[in-house]
Design a protein that fits this description.
The protein is α/β, with parallel strands linked by helices and 348 residues long. The chain has 2 domains: 189 residues, 3-Layer(aba) Sandwich (Rossmann fold), CATH 3.40.50; 143 residues, Beta Barrel (Lipocalin). The protein contains 9 helices and 14 strands. The two termini are 23 Å apart.
Length: 348
């Protein structure tokens, strides 16, 4: 990975926006490839090499970034079990990332995800108050491509060009003292950082630990689900659509997309156990002037044996304008969509 090429940094909270962060990184890489070249976008899970110092990597990438995209979802402030907000903790990694970005020469772009609103200045700790004065862009599932295009225009980075000393790659002149000061600030802030709290173990992981199974073996309960599945789904109102479910694992985290009405939605809160797979997606539903966030909760289990195995899913949607009965879906394995076809069809 060429660190110097990563000119766009995506800041996000994993339990708030991990699915969207992965989709957005792929979309920005495709959109910026001809302008900035490959590996122009940095996202921690995907882009920190195995064995690399995490704190040092974040500091280096932030210090070199020319644009920082701050993904704000409904749980961005990060309430914890004791109701305290994680964003109020001076050692919170998201707070440190955004504070360092605001203190650097980089362009800081807040991006609101479905169900989120821009926090008021009074709701933010002092180092983050300038964020409330930045114009935010909304990113939705229904207008994904148009919203990503707006974000690319807002990022506005030019193609790399030969530059004299003191000028960053891409022709944007950085003030060297300012860049050094930003790097120092990031390093000092992240020195006090505490790692993200470990996710609660899934039932499968807990069972594995109890029986003496290693953590890696427990994590393998997700392995049979990895890959692409597709199903013909008939919804309660009569429409039929071919839906696709793509399960991946990045740095030990189960992620991917599940389409709803043929539009891929980022998977959230995924967990696997010997009993099955649980995950959620979210969409927005509008009626008149009112918009609601609909939560789609899936449970899935494998039936049959390869090559005739099937993924039996049960979908329960809540939060919309009407109450829908749970929907039973049966999916079968499918070949992944080629990159060119996926780009033409819409967001992944």
């Amino acid at each position: 990975m060429r660190h110097g090429a990563e000119r766009v940094f995506i800041s996000y909270r994993r339990d708030d926006a991990a699915g969207y962060a992965g989709r957005l990184e792929e979309a920005l890489e495709r959109a910026l490839h001809t302008r900035l070249g490959p590996a122009s976008v940095f996202r921690d899970v995907q882009d920190i090499a195995l064995g690399e110092d995490f704190v040092q990597a974040i500091a280096q990438r932030l210090a070199a970034a020319q644009a920082v995209v701050v993904l704000i979802g409904p749980r961005w402030a990060g309430p914890t079990a004791n109701t305290a907000r994680r964003i109020d903790d001076p050692g919170d990694i998201v707070r440190l990332e955004v504070a360092a970005a605001l203190a650097s020469p980089a362009r800081v772009l807040p991006v609101l995800l479905p169900g989120a609103s821009m926090p008021a200045e009074a709701e933010l700790p002092d180092p983050l108050k300038p964020l409330a004065r930045r114009n935010a862009l909304s990113l939705s599932d229904t207008h994904w491509q148009a919203d990503v295009a707006k974000l690319v225009d807002a990022i506005g980075l030019a193609a790399p060009a030969a530059a004299p000393p003191g000028t960053a790659a891409g022709g944007t002149r950085w003030q060297v003292p300012a860049a050094i000061a930003a790097a120092a600030l990031i390093g000092l802030a992240l020195a006090a950082w505490r790692p993200w709290p470990a996710a609660a173990p899934t039932a499968g992981a807990a069972a594995g630990a109890a029986s003496g199974t290693t953590a890696s073996a427990a994590a393998d309960v997700a392995a049979p689900y990895l890959g692409t599945w597709q199903a013909q789904v008939r919804y309660a109102w009569g429409d039929r659509h071919e839906e696709r479910f793509v399960f991946q694992r990045h740095a030990g985290v189960l992620t991917g997309t599940a389409s709803f009405l043929r539009v891929p939605r980022g998977i959230e809160n995924a967990s696997a156990s010997p009993a099955g797979l649980l995950f959620e997606t979210r969409t927005q539903q509008s009626m008149g002037s009112e918009t609601r966030t609909v939560t789609h909760r899936y449970s899935a289990e494998l039936r049959g044996q390869p090559p005739d195995e099937r993924l039996a899913l049960r979908l329960h949607s809540t939060g919309g304008f009407e109450t829908l009965a749970p929907l039973e879906i049966e999916a079968r394995r499918a070949a992944p969509v080629p990159a060119a076809e996926a780009s033409a069809a819409g967001p992944r």
